[in-house]
Design brief:
It is built from 16 helices and 2 strands. By secondary structure, it is mainly alpha-helical. Helix 3 runs antiparallel to helix 4, helix 9 runs antiparallel to helix 10 and helix 15 runs antiparallel to helix 16. It is elongated. The structure holds protoporphyrin IX containing FE. This is Formate dehydrogenase subunit gamma.
Length: 408
């Protein structure tokens, strides 16, 4: 064996570790900022137009104030249910107060009054305890959704979209970026244990690589444009309203344009690689040993063409991607086959799976590039160093070697 680059001990990845430490610091600051936003009193369910109307006015002062009041009143409807009252769709809570129950203000000056005050709910609790009310009637408008006067689920939907998924998504993406940076700083790159041998073995053919990059570029295009759509207000408005308008326009169209190539890539990937990604007993051993990721001393757990970690990536791409495409197409054709409830769910699922996939694929991109020495060649030239193959895909190398002749 020739050790052309010195192996585990000879190889110095200090530069990578410093870069990892610096980016870990950056992502830590961004994470801290995100946590502060999460716990700040101002909830993101407030429409931002309200404060703009209030602070800038709408031409004359009178209508500006009125519009602001109307928006503020409307905002209460968009707030969490425990603040805005019961859902007409829900059953009356046990012990519900009748609709015409009136709040009493009782001074706390003697014991009896104190007891009564204790049993008289405050405004929020009283609202919650009222019987659910419902306004019903018929509409002659041709557009079915126009008959919808108030939709309590919309408040949950808005809370889910604007608060839960937006914040959890930011935490997942920034958290994963921090974790990967910290791993690079503390653990360094995964080296080729015995260094490069100088002999390569073919790993992926042209069609496999072309399909991979078609899917990868489309995914990245969808991720960036999706992030611009979801987080544009935070990320781009500080650059100016015009920048936001332009980026928003490009992102909305770009998001739709990247979808067909992503889908095509997924289908070809599924045809090429499903057989090699079916679960096997080797995967249990591979997972139990953490893929050999945490130690450079012993041999890595044996794997065929794809190890358990890669199978996880493959199935995330295929299954997650199909859910994204199905919900995405649904959103492109609103109300064609789903009603407003179904559309709300399609949007929630689309957003939730999107942020999860971005976090998962950050991990994949990391390990396929800076995280592991020698990995990127598999998808770039299609050939990997023999010692790399022995480290990570020993059983696959044994299958390939007779045909390959071991050298190039
Ligand atoms: C810049 C981004 C990316 C880089 C640098 C990258 C790198 C790589 C590399 C080096 C491999 C081969 C690993 C091996 O030899 O075993 C690979 C495989 C693969 N990639 Fe990527 N990739 C990227 C983005 C993506 C994206 C966005 C997707 C899907 C949405 C994807 C899906 C896959 C799949 C399914 C495999 C085969 C299974 C696996 O090795 O995990 N890749 N990638």
């Amino acid at each position: 064996m020739s050790e052309t680059d010195g192996g585990v001990r000879g190889r110095d990845f200090t530069g990578y570790r410093i870069a990892g430490a610096l980016s870990a610091l950056l992502f830590l600051v961004l994470l801290a900022w995100q946590v502060t936003v999460l716990f700040s009193a101002d909830s993101t369910v407030q429409p931002e137009a309200a404060w703009r109307v209030a602070s800038e006015g709408a031409g004359d002062a009178g209508s500006g104030t009125l519009a602001s009041e109307a928006l503020t009143a409307r905002t209460r409807l968009l707030d969490e249910r425990f603040r805005t009252g019961p859902s007409p769709e829900a059953d009356a809570p046990e012990g519900a107060l009748s609709q015409d129950f009136a709040l009493e203000q009782t001074p706390l000056d003697d014991g009896a009054a104190l007891t009564r005050a204790w049993s008289v709910p405050d405004e929020d609790t009283a609202a919650m305890m009222h019987e659910p009310g419902r306004v019903e009637g018929i509409s002659s408008l041709p557009y079915s959704n126009a008959a919808l006067y108030e939709r309590p689920f919309a408040r949950d939907w808005r809370l889910g979209m604007s608060d839960v998924i937006t914040h959890m998504g930011a935490l997942a993406i920034l958290g994963m970026a921090f974790l990967l940076s910290a791993v690079l700083a503390l653990r360094g790159r995964v080296p080729i244990r015995r260094g490069k041998s100088g002999r390569s073995v073919k790993r992926f053919g042209f069609v496999e690589r072309a399909t991979h990059w078609l899917t990868a570029v489309s995914f990245l295009g969808l991720a960036f444009t999706g992030i611009a759509i979801a987080y544009g207000e935070t990320l781009f408005v500080p650059l100016g309203e015009r920048a936001m308008g332009t980026l928003g326009w490009w992102s909305t169209w770009g998001h739709v344009l990247f979808a067909p190539t992503f889908f095509l890539g997924l289908v070809v990937m599924a045809v090429m690689w499903t057989g090699r990604n079916l679960p096997s007993k080797l995967d249990i051993n591979w997972i139990a040993k953490g893929g050999g990721f945490f130690s450079d001393d012993g041999p890595h757990p044996p794997a065929r063409k794809f190890n358990a970690g890669q199978k996880l990536i493959f199935w995330s791409a295929i299954l997650g991607g199909l859910v994204m495409v199905a919900t995405g197409v649904t959103l492109m054709f609103p109300f064609y086959w789903l009603d407003i409830g179904g559309m709300s769910w399609a949007m929630l699922i689309h957003a939730a799976i999107a942020v999860l996939l971005i976090a998962v694929f950050l991990g994949h991109i990391y390990i396929g590039s800076v995280g592991m020495h020698g990995a990127i060649h598999a998808m770039w030239s299609g050939r990997v160093d023999r010692n790399w193959a022995e480290d990570h895909h020993e059983l696959w190398l044994r299958e390939e070697e007779p045909a390959e002749g071991g050298a190039s």
